[in-house]
């Protein structure tokens, strides 16, 4: 174990907490890298080394989220995901085991120190421009139009009866309402709406539970992993989709290992059958319910039950139980199409692979692109067409702050600053037309399938 002045010492199997007031042992990155196992995990925050091996299971954000930063510098992620840093540091103190040796860089691996420095300067500029201040009227209007659509769909059936035309219109309106609810709960999950995080969490439970029938905690569990490690296999659940689909580097791996669970060279075709139609209807429903039961999220379960009770009590009198269930399935399938195309148009065509251990800024920018804005596209996509700015908002969030993430109505204002910074560092700031972005999903799936086939046949 490296002690004071002994950064080259061999690490032991487990470190005890550093004694208060005693000199801290020092470690080199080569020592820290070996502590990235399920029962043996260290990480670095602000040049201090912490042993989170046992505590990770008690991490409020889940052991998986914090574990993804094992043996890495997690300083920027620590700032991005915590609002009250002084409060959180109290929990870190008992886990402190040492610090980086003075000659060691603050970050390990492929890093761009100047880029990180410039992003932090941009964060301060965004704060000076008051870009972290939310407009209550904007989000009130979003919630209002969701509720209006819920009532309007029911009124169509009430006034015109459960025929094909009013039923189709009602299903479309409900699907739009569900899609916009995804966007609103996403804002709340990022604590972008209210000054106090507790208000955001309560409002998210209402929107996610009562308006959608899902668990807010389940969504945050998935989504925070995505933002921590975007497009990284086994760390970002949004791209860990093998063996159903192969993306990026997994295509080569499966081909070389002669794995053929499905005809991956045709995955761009069967994507239409099992991707957009079934994600929220099957995968999300099952995963969400399992999460609530296994993790004993009883409050979320009650909120979800209130959604199903309201939905079926509203429509069973018109359709009967079977008809109401068919209406629910139709809404979920339409909603699922929206969810898949909108959320994946920024990610699937980009770099997808294993951990590269790059700095926070580079890893976020390599994984996404933007879609050309317009009033309709901004609304339709929930401002996820500004995906670069959305990914960067974690880097830009000023800790500690009452506005931990930037409200989406300010993305267009920070976009020129982010674009200029990308140009300065030679980073790609890609902006696509909307239809091109959608077509690129299919093109990327076909390309990955062809790569798999080539490796499969010729390895």
TrEMBL record:
Pathway in which the depicted protein is active: Lipid metabolism; polyunsaturated fatty acid biosynthesis
One GO BP annotation of this record: unsaturated fatty acid biosynthetic process
Membrane disposition: Multi-pass membrane protein
Gene3D superfamilies recorded: Cytochrome b5-like heme/steroid binding domain
Record field: compositional bias (Gly residues): 1-11
Pfam families: Cyt-b5, FA_desaturase
Main localization (coarse): endoplasmic reticulum
Organism annotation: Hipposideros armiger (Great Himalayan leaf-nosed bat)
The entry's keywords: Fatty acid biosynthesis, Fatty acid metabolism, Lipid biosynthesis, Lipid metabolism, Membrane, Transmembrane, Transmembrane helix
Sequence ranges assigned to domain Cytochrome b5 heme-binding in this UniProt record: 24-101
Gene from which this protein is expressed: FADS3
CDD domains, per the entry: Delta6-FADS-like (cd03506)
The protein's name in its UniProt record: Fatty acid desaturase 3 isoform X1
MF-aspect GO terms: oxidoreductase activity, acting on paired donors, with oxidation of a pair of donors resulting in the reduction of molecular oxygen to two molecules of water
Transmembrane annotation, as ranges: 137-157, 269-292, 312-334
Subcellular location: Endoplasmic reticulum membrane
Location of region: Disordered: 1-22
Annotated SMART domains: Cyt-b5
GO cellular component annotations of the record: endoplasmic reticulum membrane
């Amino acid at each position: 174990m490296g002690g004071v002045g002994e950064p080259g010492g061999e690490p032991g199997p487990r470190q005890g907490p550093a004694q208060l007031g005693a000199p801290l042992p020092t470690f080199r990155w080569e020592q820290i890298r070996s502590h990235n196992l399920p029962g043996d995990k260290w990480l670095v925050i602000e040049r201090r080394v912490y042993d989170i091996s046992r505590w990770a299971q008690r991490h409020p954000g889940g052991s998986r989220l914090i574990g993804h930063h094992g043996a890495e510098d997690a300083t920027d992620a620590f700032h991005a995901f915590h609002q009250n840093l002084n409060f959180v540091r109290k929990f870190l103190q008992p886990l402190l085991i040492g610090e980086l040796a003075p000659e060691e860089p603050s970050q390990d691996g492929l890093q761009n120190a100047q880029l990180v420095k410039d992003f932090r300067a941009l964060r301060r500029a965004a704060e000076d421009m008051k870009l972290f201040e939310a407009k209550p009227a904007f989000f009130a209007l979003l919630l209002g139009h969701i509720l209006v659509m819920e009532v309007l769909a029911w009124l169509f059936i009430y006034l015109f009866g459960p025929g094909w035309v009013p039923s189709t219109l009602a299903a479309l309106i409900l699907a739009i309402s569900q899609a916009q609810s995804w966007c609103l709960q996403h804002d709340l999950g990022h604590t972008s709406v209210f000054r106090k995080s507790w208000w955001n969490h309560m409002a998210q439970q209402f929107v996610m539970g009562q308006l959608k029938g899902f668990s807010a905690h389940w969504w945050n569990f998935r989504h925070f992993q995505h933002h921590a490690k975007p497009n990284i296999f086994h760390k970002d659940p949004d791209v860990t989709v093998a063996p159903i689909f192969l993306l990026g580097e997994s295509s080569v791996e499966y081909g070389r290992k002669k794995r053929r669970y499905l005809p991956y060279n045709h995955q761009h075709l069967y994507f239409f059958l099992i991707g957009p139609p079934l994600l929220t209807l099957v995968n999300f429903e099952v995963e969400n319910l399992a999460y609530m039961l296994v993790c004993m999220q009883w409050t979320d379960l009650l909120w979800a039950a209130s959604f199903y009770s309201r939905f079926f009590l509203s429509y069973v009198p018109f359709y009967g139980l079977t008809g109401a269930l068919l209406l629910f399935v139709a809404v979920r399938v339409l909603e699922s199409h929206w969810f898949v195309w909108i959320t994946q148009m920024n990610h699937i065509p980009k770099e997808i692979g294993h951990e590269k251990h790059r700095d926070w800024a580079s890893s976020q920018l390599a994984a996404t692109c933007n879609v050309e804005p317009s009033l309709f596209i901004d609304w339709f996509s929930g401002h996820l067409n500004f995906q670069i700015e959305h990914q960067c908002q974690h880097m830009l969030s000023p800790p500690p702050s009452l506005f931990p993430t930037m409200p989406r109505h300010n993305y267009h204002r920070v976009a020129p600053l982010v674009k200029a910074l990308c140009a300065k560092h030679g980073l790609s700031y890609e902006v696509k037309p909307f239809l091109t972005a959608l077509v690129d999903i299919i093109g990327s799936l076909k390309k990955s399938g062809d790569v798999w086939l080539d490796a499969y046949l010729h390895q």
